[in-house]
Amino acid sequence: MVDQFQEFLIGAAETFVKEIYGLGARKMSLTGLPPMGCLPLERTTNYVNGNGDKCMDGYNDVALHFNGKLSDLVTKMNEEMPGIRVVFSHPYDVFMQIIREPSTFGKFLLLNFSSN
């Protein structure tokens, strides 16, 4: 089911790019997904369910799979459409680096509001 939805989204992106290409657009950027399993909601859900505050790997795998398909689409369009320049923006790795090594990106303050 997830794969079918991904194919639907990739098809919609391709249709959209072709439409604006037909209107004269030649430079575009398509942005992939961040690590969806590391979103605060998912990490909080994991914590509430007693699984710690780790990222949900399954969601991250889906994001990576979608990003691969979107990247392939960008390559295909650059090869098939004369004069177009589509770039793929891949935020996944940047966000994972921030999540894994937050101190690399500056100081931060952690506040604990627990009642204990």
Q: Please give the alpha-carbon distance between the first and last residues.
A: 43 Å
Structural class: mainly alpha
Count of folded domains: 1
Name the poorly predicted regions.
none
Report the mean per-residue pLDDT as an integer: 90
Shape: elongated
In terms of quaternary structure, what is this?
Answer: single chain
Number of strands: 2
Major β-sheet profile: 2 strands, parallel
Residue share in helices? 55-70%
Spatial extent as radius of gyration: 18 Å
Percentage beta strand: 5-15%
- Tell me the number of helical segments per DSSP (H or I, 4 or more residues long): 4
Written as H for each helix and E for each strand, in order along the chain, the element string is: HEHHEH
Strand order of the largest sheet: 1-2
Give a description of the structure.
This protein has 116 residues and is mainly alpha-helical. Helix content is 55%, strand content 9%. It has helices at 2-22, 40-48, 57-80, 91-100, and strands at 27-31, 85-89. The protein has a two-stranded parallel ribbon. The longest helix is centred in the middle third of the chain and has 24 residues, at 57-80. The mean pLDDT is 90.
Distinctive features:
116 residues, mainly alpha, two-stranded parallel sheet
How would you summarize the topology of this molecule?
Layout: H1 2-22, E1 27-31, H2 40-48, H3 57-80, E2 85-89, H4 91-100
Parallel strand pairs: 1-2
